[in-house]
Amino acid sequence: MKIVVILGAPGSGKGTVAARLVKSLPLRHVSTGDLLRAAAKNADTPLARAVAETMRKGELVSDEIVGGLVVEQLSKPGPGCEYFLLDGYPRNEKQAAFLEAKLAEGGQKVAKAVWLEVPQDVLIGRLSGRRTCPQCGAGFHVETMRPKVEGKCDNCGGALVQRPDDAPENVANRLKVYEAKTASLLGWYEGRGVLARVNGVGDADAVAEAVAKAIVE
Hints:
The structure is a single chain. This protein starts with a strand and ends with a helix. Helices cover 47% and strands 16% of the residues. It is an alpha/beta fold. A 5-stranded parallel sheet has the order 2-3-1-4-7, with helices on both faces. A two-stranded antiparallel ribbon has the order 5-6. The longest helix is centred in the C-terminal third of the chain and has 14 residues, at 168-181. It has one domain (2-118, 182-216): P-loop containing nucleotide triphosphate hydrolases (Rossmann fold, 3-Layer(aba) Sandwich), CATH 3.40.50.300. α1 (14-24) packs across α9, α2 (32-42) crosses α3 and α3 (46-56) runs antiparallel to α4. The protein has helices spanning 14-24, 32-42, 46-56, 63-74, 93-105, 120-128, 168-181, 185-191, 204-216, and strands at 2-7, 27-31, 83-87, 110-117, 130-132, 139-141, 195-199.
């Protein structure tokens, strides 16, 4: 099984690309955001209970706990899985080093780190235009993925909202924080000879195809 990391700023399209890759490659997509939400909901293991307690207090989940959840998933690739795609982890060099050490214990390493390159003005437009349904979690965009009825979810009819962190005044700060904490991973993976840069602007299917090509090369 080959371990692949997908990197990119908020709004770069990591989730959209991953959803398409699952259909075209024998790949398991693991989003750390989904892992944390599931752990908090189920609280069925010591790590999951730690996540639930941390999130209940409104605190940030530690690098150690997030890393532990990811490592747990690495032992559950699923039938026929050839690639394991990590989305949202690692977020910094400390997490990258933890992942590298854990993989080395099993004789593995990150086979490819794919960086979705998207200009900041495009990122701001993508993020500030997003709308979500609080009832079912469906996502839309005011320009590229409009609902059938303005302001209403296609799936359940719920009223669409803009998340506070997607407001234009907050987006630029989110990108600055990302740049400060995560962009150094470029150098980390480039130094290990596994970094692939992919243009993240354009048709989603074409971007996903380019990412798939980078993964299997």
